[in-house]
Specification:
six-stranded mixed β-sheet, 1 helix, about 5% helix, globular, about 160 residues
Length: about 160
Amino acid sequence: MLSEFAVMVDYGQILIFIQGLPRPGLIWTPDHGAQGFAWAPGIVSFGIPDHDGESLIQVEVSSDISIEPEALWAIRVPFKVPTLPLQIGTVGAMEDVHVPQGSYSLVFEALPGSIIKENDYGFVLRLKFCADPHPDFEILKKGGNITTDKVLRRDAQNA
């Protein structure tokens, strides 16, 4: 595990972006909402349904793109990591996370918060960076606010 931290999810999303991007944020369209994410080179935002309390973000490097059977929903997007650390978190609370440089399929999966027994999290939001020379976009599991099983938009405008 590269990093693990609790956050209050602001604005119904978590962000992953390359440190130093000017104005790190994306404009969501109805298609982005239906697929559960908005993406542009160097930044991705995953939608999180409204809920009470904190969520736990877990960041890891993995060789396995598969998802947990308990996953409520899951998405895969391409992500190139430079030498700079990534910023991961919510609009109001970001953490520096050092992911090794490379080309990845970034697998986002939302798990029930109840899988972590000692705390009461709304969700466990797992980010798996899987080395992949040819990463792609994919809805791995429909759920949460995701209403489609296919990717509708592969790009988003910076906010």
